[in-house]
Amino acid sequence: MRQRLAAATLDALAVHGHAGASLSVILDRAGVSRGAWAHHFDTKAEMLALAAEGLLQGAVEAARTLAPAGPDPCQPAEARLAAMIEAAWSRFYTGRHRDLLFEVALAARTDAELRVRLAPIFSGFLTATGGNWGLSLRPDSDGLTEMADLMVLTIYMLRGMAMQELAAGPVPGHEGLRRLWVRMLSGWLEKS
Q: Which sign, positive or negative, has the C-alpha torsion 148, 156, 82, 192?
């Protein structure tokens, strides 16, 4: 029942946004009465936290799988990097996942309890991205920390692009900017 309510919470957030995802809307989507809901949760914030944790933990696991297990000597670093960035863009920063990510971040902005619960998961996503992606591109220890930091910076850049697209609609130039970023990072990889 808790997972059903968490799924309905995410559905309501995706359709109505944080402001419109009232408890009544969520319970209606889940087909659950207030009494049954109250048996599983004390507050709507607690239910939102469970739903958001599931969404973000899934993203952490998915981020780990976007990086190849090890470098492929047959494939240039630039091609591996481009594939990872485009996979991250399409998996995390378009469509439903993007929309939910920003709704959850918006909710955490004003809900201190939610922010405290989600902060380690957001950090875990950055750690998984930086460490795993950085290691797949830079398996030697030289420059690994910088590569991990560059991968975190890449996530921040992708989030900014996603936010811009939420506000203004699709931006055709973003694909070119991602390609430019890949070329810049590839140049750094070759020099270091």
A: negative
- Residue 127 CA to residue 138 CA, distance in Å, equals 15
Q: Running DSSP on this structure, what letter comes out for residue 172? A: T
Give, in order, the Cα–Cα distances in Å from 59 to each of 22, 70, 128, 191.
Answer: 25, 21, 10, 32
Q: Give the helix ranges, DSSP H, for the chain.
A: 2-20, 23-30, 34-40, 44-66, 77-92, 95-110, 112-128, 134-137, 144-168, 173-191
Please tell me the distance from the alpha carbon of residue 65 to that of residue 89, in angstroms, as a whole number.
Answer: 14
User: Which tokens go with 9?
Assistant: 């919470």
User: Are 177 and 154 a contacting pair, CB within 8 Å?
Assistant: no
pLDDT tens profile 114-153? 899 889 888 888 888 887 787 777 766 666 788 888 889 9
pTM of the model: 0.85
Beta-carbon-side half-sphere exposure of residue 187 (alpha carbons within 13 Å): 6
